[in-house]
Amino acid sequence: MRIVDIRELAVPLEGAVANAVVNFSEHTVSLVALITDVVRHGKPVIGLGFNSIGRFAQSGIIQTRMIPRLLAAAPASLLAEDGRQFDAAKVLATIMRNEKPGGHGDRAGAAAAIELAVWDLNAKLAEEPAYATIARAFGRTAQAEAVEVYTGGGYYYASGAGKSLREEFQSYRDLGFESFKMKIGGAPLAEDMRRVEEALEVAGGPAHLMVDANGRFDLPTALAYAKELKPLGLRWFEEIGDPLDFQLNREAIEAYGGPVATGENLFSAIDTLNLVRFGGMRPGHDIFQMDAGLSYGLTEYARMIEILESHGFDRRQAVPHGGHLINLHIVVGLGLGACEAYPGVFQPFGGYSQACEIRNAKVRPSEAPGFGLEQKRELAPLIRQLGC
Q1: From the CA atom positions of the chain, what is the Rg in Å?
Q2: Mean pLDDT for all residues in the chain
Q3: Distance, CA of 83 to CA of 1 (rounded, Å)
Q4: Which one of the listed residues 104, 183, 208, 329 is annotated catalytic?
Q5: By its UniProt entry, which Pfam families does this protein fall under (predicted)?
Q6: C-alpha torsion 49→50→51→55, nearest 10
Q7: Handedness of CA 282, 284, 105, 212 (dihedral sign)
Q8: Is 43 a catalytic residue?
Q9: pLDDT band at 308 (very low <50, low <70, confident <90, very high)
Q10: Quick one: pLDDT at residue 347?
Q11: What is the Cα–Cα distance from 309 to 315, expressed in whole angstroms?
Q12: Band of the pLDDT at 357, cuts 50, 70, 90?
């Protein structure tokens, strides 16, 4: 059993929305296919994966460094001990050969796209959904439980755009969502607080509203926002300052008091360890948003969860960034806290397939083999473009 071909496609994201830091209209995603010599139902078994949304495709790193390493490897060196599946950790080690430690930037997402495709591939070889493969690999019982889902959104709309924050959140409520996240930091404090009050009216209370500054604030601005937001009792205050400024995070937590969420821009286990050591995060209180699609894949992400638990945190405090099918299976397979969703934006990757029904603010993965990416109609033409 071997991988005979690897293909990568840079896919533009659809959705001209912006947060306080970036406009997503220029962003792309790497969609990867691992094609094997195993044939089922007259077709080769193919693993699909992608790096996370909200950044850029990594075509150069994948095609010039990682694909050649993987194709040059002895086929047996990539297999699990039983020879019936591929070993994701061995694949990751192979594509990272000759890479220096540190510098967890674009290559972390490039590696993730390939490594996550291995999990899709293994689940298809086992003819089971990916959450079951993931659960078994990490010694857990595979259960297709419905998990809480909330919407990422609350973007800034230009005057005359024909849509308001209130209308956006109401459309999500009409779809069955009950908790909502909105962007702050892209307008003056007074204007943002007006927007928060507007969002609260739709959310139905502070326990159903989160705010996200996307890492924009320096310490004085963070403290000014914390002072205004503190009395509201929101569900959490996300990405307050620079993701590697652990002292700012700690001081903001001390001033704010309420739950804080961070970690989506940490791409390694050692960065997660430093956040735990120095960032002021509190067991049973704060939220960790590391994302396997940005962090070398599930192998490295599982190490992050181990770090959290070894320092007294509950794995249900992990709520991965990025609302898509891959993270849905990871959340269910690892028993994490909740899922994000992006209704109507960040297509073709954002959100779930029609087979994943959202009911009572919870979502359940389908029983399709792998991550079920083939069931997402927006992805279907791109999968065909890869020749799959």
Answers
A1: 20
A2: 94
A3: 8
A4: 183
A5: MR_MLE_C
A6: -170
A7: negative
A8: no
A9: very high
A10: 86
A11: 7
A12: confident
Phi, psi of 76 (to 5 degrees): -65, -25
Helix (H, G, I), strand (E, B) or coil at 236: strand
Q: Can you tell me the distance from the alpha carbon of 380 to that of 192, in angstroms, rounded to the nearest whole number?
A: 39
Q: Of 327, 384, 383, whose CA–CA distance to 356 is shortest?
A: 327
Question: Known catalytic residue: 183?
Answer: yes
Rounded to the nearest 5 degrees, what angle is found at the Cα of 214, between the Cα atoms of 208 and 218? 115
67-75 long-range CB contacts below 8 Å, 24 or more apart? 67/6, 67/8, 67/114, 69/94, 69/95, 69/97, 70/3, 70/6, 70/94, 70/95, 70/114, 71/3, 71/6, 75/1, 75/2, 75/3
Residue 231 above 60 pLDDT? Answer: yes
Rounded to an integer, what distance in angstroms lies between the CA atom of residue 335 and that of residue 145? 9
pLDDT on residue 24: 62
Residue with tokens 């993987």: 70
Taking CA atoms, 354 is separated from 182, 325, 375, 382, in Å, by 25, 11, 7, 17
Q: Whose structure tokens read 């094997």?
A: 36
Banded pLDDT at 140 (limits 50, 70, 90): very high
Strands 3-12 and 28-40: antiparallel
Report whether 318 contacts 276 (CB < 8 A): no
Tokens found for residue 302: 């599982």
In the chain, the amino acid numbered 353 is: S
Question: Rounded mean pLDDT of 16-24?
Answer: 59
Options 124, 181, 321, 329, the catalytic residue:
321
Alpha-helix runs per DSSP H in 57-184: 59-61, 67-72, 88-95, 106-125, 130-137, 165-174
Say if residue 162's pLDDT is above 60: yes
Q: Phi-psi category of 215—alpha, beta or left, where left has phi over 0 and alpha has psi -120 to 50? A: left
Give the pLDDT band (50/70/90) at residue 270: very high
Cα–Cα distance measured from residue 274 to residue 300, given in angstroms and rounded to the nearest whole number: 15
Pull the structure tokens for residue 330: 């990871």
CB 247: neighbour CB atoms within 10 A?
12
